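Before relying on records like the one below, remember that each one covers exactly one chain. Contacts with other chains, cofactors or solvent are not represented anywhere in the record.
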Amino acid sequence: KDDGAIRISSLTHGDVEEKFKQLNDDPDSILPMSLIYQHTANNPDQVTQAIRKFYFNGAENITLEMVPQLTKLYTDNLFTKGAMESVRRHSGPVFLYHFAYNQSFSLCSEYFDNPWHPGVCHLDELLYLFPMEGNAPKLVQNDPDYTMSKHMIELWTNFA
C-alpha cells in the first residue's frame, strides 16, 4: 500500500528539519534527482511544479505533516508506475495485489527508523510468507498476524 515509505524513511529520521529545509530550498534540483526525471523530462522544473500541485495542493513548502502525500508520491513513482507499465505491455492475463494489512510490525518502522510511517511499506508482505530473521516477531498461533499469514500463504499457493 505505502511502498514509497521505504524511500522517504531517509527523510523522516535524523535531522528532519534540516532535510525538509533542503527539500524546500531547492525542490527544482532535489525532486527531479530523487524521482529520477532530471535527465528524462523535457522541462524538469515544469514537472516539479505539476508534482507539487497534484500531491501537495500547490503548497509553498512540503512539511512533515505531508508525509502521507510524500509517501504516495514515491509509491506512485517508484512502484505503481512501473507495475502498471508492465501490466500494459504484458500480452497475457495479469493479476496485481494490494497489500494493505495494518500489521503490528513493519520493516519501515523497524529497520528504517521511520516513526511517521503511514502504514504498510514495501516488502512488509514478506513477513507473512517467509520466516524472517532479526527483529521480526515470531508469529504466534491465534494472533491476528498469524491468521493473516495463513490466509496469504493459502491465497498465494492456490493461485500458483
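The chain has a mean pLDDT of 86.
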